Amino acid sequence: SNNDLAHLDWTRLLQMAAEHAVQPLIYLRLRHQEGLPPAVLKAMRAQYYASSLSNLKLARELVRLTALLDEAGIPALAFKGPVLALKLRGDLSLRQFNDLDLLVRPEDAGRAAELLIRENHYPRHFDPANVARSLRRCNEDEFIRPHDLQMIDLHWALGPHYFPYGPAAELVWQRAIACHLEGGEVLTMGGLDTVLYLAVHGTKHGWAMLGAVCDLAAAFGPAQAIDPHQLLAEAARCGCLNMVLLGAILARNLLGATLPSPIADRIIRQPGLNALAAGIERRMFKYAGLRSGLYLDWFVSLRLLQDSRSRLRYFANRAFLPAPEDVEFIELPAVLYLLYFPLRPFRLLLQHGKRLFIDVPIARKRVKRISL
Questions:
Q1: What global pTM score does this model have?
Q2: Where are the alpha helices (DSSP H) in the chain?
Q3: Can you give the pLDDT at residue 265?
């Protein structure tokens, strides 16, 4: 209502819309709303058109880079970013993103990295002189073009070593489809793998962002024509069934998404997932300007794994397995590499210890459904 709009903290709303990657959807929902302050409408319109231009530029860069990779004999699969905007919403301007994601096979990662470097995109960690070590340490790296800070995320696996769930990369390649984009054609994930990946990716980050829920809600839509029985069977096979179901609950509760009957029926039999979703909903909009607490970042993933052995493996790998960030934190000689295993938990505690205090008990309150 107009009365509600008059009492909104618009500065906080615009800040949280950006943090949750829903600026375009918020603008389209509110731009014709009576009672919207003119200064707020002007700011939202400026953000929307700036984002649209940026998205168009990135889409054209994606087409250019994938064509270069193809000419070099390097198959590349584009996901998230502009291809997801087109697949889920049919419009580049309706999804907020600021980088590009490309998947290559591990055996092609070194050549792909060299090509990006020739195109003036420089890696944060990847070492073309020691490709094998780079592949062991992580599943992706950021390649940044210095003069405009444009970023390419080059992936050679769909998830980090500590989170081996979701569709297998080779199956994703086999089920990939073509996407027509800005006068070109790029390869991207098929519909089934898109849902699985979005559910796993959202879970890995604790469903801390509303934009991730919006993506999954759109992926469940009738336009995507996903077979729910096949989705449930494939999710169970690759260990992410609970992740898909939790994402579906959040899409229903927060956005009013209509779920396919087999998925809705399966959710009814999962009271624990409904309770977990309630905990996420209470925290999602609690901490403007702060990273999520350990509940979202660690507990959500641990809770969704299917057995104690998987939880122990996840915790041990994430807490102790060295990553490039540990080398960035303190550089040790190669002969002392094993010291990174005990140093990693110390580094995590030192850099993120304040987040231990973010998830103090939160009073239960009803989370309103959001119409986007």
A1: 0.90
A2: 2-6, 10-19, 23-30, 38-71, 81-89, 109-118, 131-137, 169-174, 191-204, 210-219, 228-237, 241-255, 261-268, 271-284, 294, 300-304, 308-320, 324-329, 340-352
A3: 94
